[in-house]
Amino acid sequence: MKNFETLLWEQDGSGVGVLTINRPKAMNALNDKVFVELQEFIDTINNDQSLRALIITGTGDKAFVAGADIKEFADFSSEEATKLSLRGQNVFQQIEELGIPVIAAVNGYALGGGLEFALACHIRIASPNAVLGLPEVSLGLIPGYGGTQRLPQIVGKAKALEMIMSGRFVKAEEALSIGLVSKIAEGDILEEARGMVKPMLKQAPLAITKAIEAVKESGKTNGFEHEANLFGDLFSTADFKEGTQAFIEKRKPEFQGK
Ligand code: DAK
């Protein structure tokens, strides 16, 4: 992996990678450089078979990501803003469509574009001091990186609109109670995120990939059909044969990701 200016990268021997958004002086706010580097990062990991799970977090203990960089977008025209919204949406969609588990370790403020980033991850875990919200209306905007689409899927339309229209911040306990995060870390948040992915690493990698794809289609008209097709695809994988054979032989399966 190349060295980035705004991102830090670390991957352990079990294939778990930790991506850290690293702009501590700006509470890890998302500027143009972060998006350019995120795209380069995604292009690199898409060709990396050794990566089995991705944890995303922010530098320090105050912020995951405190939003889009307010100082950068203040002068944009409507056309530029639409174009950049589409670019940001596209980057987050690629994160959501990664075929490996993606966990957001929300270690502080996750506001605006920062919460939208966390929403694009498959699972969110929060530190006790986490503060989440979509305060765009306070800037005369609405969320522009997928927040109006993903938040209702996670917390329901009424709760999402209540959060979006008030712009109010939600602390970790409330985020847990509305299903916005799956867990509040009691100890080191990265260790707890690693603990969450550990059982997933033991499973058949292609089944994980297809599960992510199938769940993404939930609620859509062809969701059930999609599930049946993905289910059928897995019947021709070596890992399916290994998984069933291992069960019959009363041993642990050794999956190859094939
Ligand atoms: N952008 C730029 N700098 C930020 C920032 C942000 N979002 N958040 C914090 N910083 C900077 C602060 O300016 C400060 O810098 P200096 O003054 O030291 O140079 C430094 O980080 C430390 O922040 P504070 O001194 O404010 O720290 P506190 O602990 O007192 O407060 C805070 C922490 C997170 C509550 C506060 O910093 C804050 O309210 N930050 C802004 C939160 C926010 O409103 N975020 C934006 C949400 S709206 C778009 C697409 C999407 C969007 C916009 C455009 N286009 C496609 C065009 C999305 C918009 C959003 O994300």
Say what oligomer this is: single chain
Describe the global form.
Answer: globular
Measured between the Cα atoms of the first and last residue, the distance is 25 Å
**Number of strand elements:** 10
* DSSP helix fraction: 40-55%
CATH superfamily of the largest domain: 2-enoyl-CoA Hydratase, Chain A, domain 1
What is the number of helices?
11
CATH class of the largest domain: Alpha Beta
The ligands bound in this entry are: 4-(N,N-dimethylamino)cinnamoyl-COA
**Structural class from helices and strands?**
alpha/beta
Show unreliable segments: none
- Give the count of structural domains: 2
* Order of helical and strand elements: EEHEEHHEEHEEHHEHEHHHH
Provide the gyration radius in Å: 19 Å
Largest sheet: 6 strands, mixed
Task: Indicate the CATH topology of the largest domain.
Answer: 2-enoyl-CoA Hydratase, Chain A, domain 1
User: pLDDT average, as an integer?
Assistant: 97
- Our estimate of the beta-strand percent is 15-25%
Strand order of the largest sheet: 1-2-3-5-7-10
Structure commentary:
- The protein is an alpha/beta fold and 258 residues long.
- It folds into two domains: 7-201, 2-enoyl-CoA Hydratase, Chain A, domain 1 (Alpha-Beta Complex); 205-248.
- Helices cover 46% and strands 15% of the residues.
- The chain has helices spanning 32-45, 70-73, 78-96, 113-120, 147-155, 157-166, 172-177, 189-201, 205-216, 223-234, 238-248, and strands at 7-11, 16-21, 53-58, 63-65, 102-106, 109-111, 123-126, 131-133, 170-171, 183-184.
- It has a six-stranded mixed beta sheet, with helices on both faces.
- It is globular.
- The relative contact order is 0.11.
- 4-(N,N-dimethylamino)cinnamoyl-COA is lined by residues 26-27, 29, 66-71, 73, 76, 81, 84-85, 88, 109, 111-113, 135-136, 139, 141, 144-145.
